[in-house]
Design brief:
This protein has two helices and four strands. The chain is an alpha+beta fold and 105 residues long. It has one domain: YaeB-like fold (2-Layer Sandwich), CATH 3.30.2310. The relative contact order is 0.19.
């Protein structure tokens, strides 16, 4: 199930891309990540979390949901403020609704 064109690859450094891939692989293998790498995001939805990736001079967030058969990447963005901007939360909720509809949930 792919929602084409929804998420673009951000301009992360190679080190940040590798760290993101490593953490996503751990999630796929069933590891439960906690701070400082990940934190729950119940405002977005059940089983939703945020990966925290520190880059050279930026901080990235990868919003994901843990399903029984997949790690669903919902959004990737540069974090510039302490709180997650409402527009990112609303966009994640919209994408998860579309994903659920397409998957017959």
């Amino acid at each position: 199930m792919v929602l084409r064109g929804e998420i673009k690859t951000p301009p992360m450094s190679e080190a940040a891309r590798r760290e993101t891939g490593f953490l996503l692989r751990r999630l796929q293998q069933g590891d439960n990540l906690a701070l400082p790498h990940s934190r729950p995001m119940p405002d977005i939805g059940p089983r939703c979390h945020e990966l925290r990736i520190n880059d050279a001079n930026k901080t990235w967030r990868v919003i994901y949901r843990i399903d029984d058969d997949a790690i669903v990447v919902v959004e990737v963005f540069e974090k510039k403020t302490r709180a997650t901007p409402h527009r990112h939360i609303a966009e994640c909720q919209r994408r998860l609704r579309l994903y659920g509809q397409a998957a017959g949930e």
